[in-house]
Amino acid sequence: MLKDQAASLGLAIQFIEMSPSPSNNEYEESMVEFLKKCKENEITHAAFGDIFLKDIRQYREKLVRLSGLQAIFPLWGEQTDSLARQFINDGYKASICGIDGSKLPYSLLGHHYDAWVIDAIRKSADPCGENGEFHTFVYGGPIFSTELSFAAAGTENAFTDFRTLLLQREDYT
């Protein structure tokens, strides 16, 4: 699905090979090695979608600095409720594909990310999931060449309390 997403956006995609449950050390070494290869290919910056978690930003900046690249955070400091509503109003389409059950009900898994969801989670979660409450899969919007079609293929518990919706590709619409 990620390859299809990148193709619809007209973007190249590369994957970093790691063991299924990498240690933090393995993750960091793999990330820095990948970012160093990016620098060798004349890439100068690494962009992240973090909005307000300072410890995560500092961690990412440290890893990126080790590779010789510069980290940028284009959404940093934005109001998450406004960002979420702008995302929807701009015509993007996303599905909730991961839920931390300690923060939100699993019944939201697979639900279309829309104004109803933002209003429903307001008291217990950040509308952008910035604290890891949920993850989304974006499958359509103004910069996609085609909307992606997919179906649920089951669920798995990725971590304690975190359930992931497994997605499988269907034909494009």
Automatic annotation (TrEMBL):
Annotated ranges, domain Diphthamide synthase: 2-153
Tell me the InterPro entries matching this sequence.
Answer: Diphthami_syn_dom, Rossmann-like_a/b/a_fold
Pfam families membership: Diphthami_syn_2
Q: For this UniProt entry, which segments traverse the membrane?
A: none
Q: Kindly provide the name given to this protein in its UniProt entry.
A: Diphthamide synthase domain-containing protein
Q: Which organism is it from?
A: Metabacillus flavus
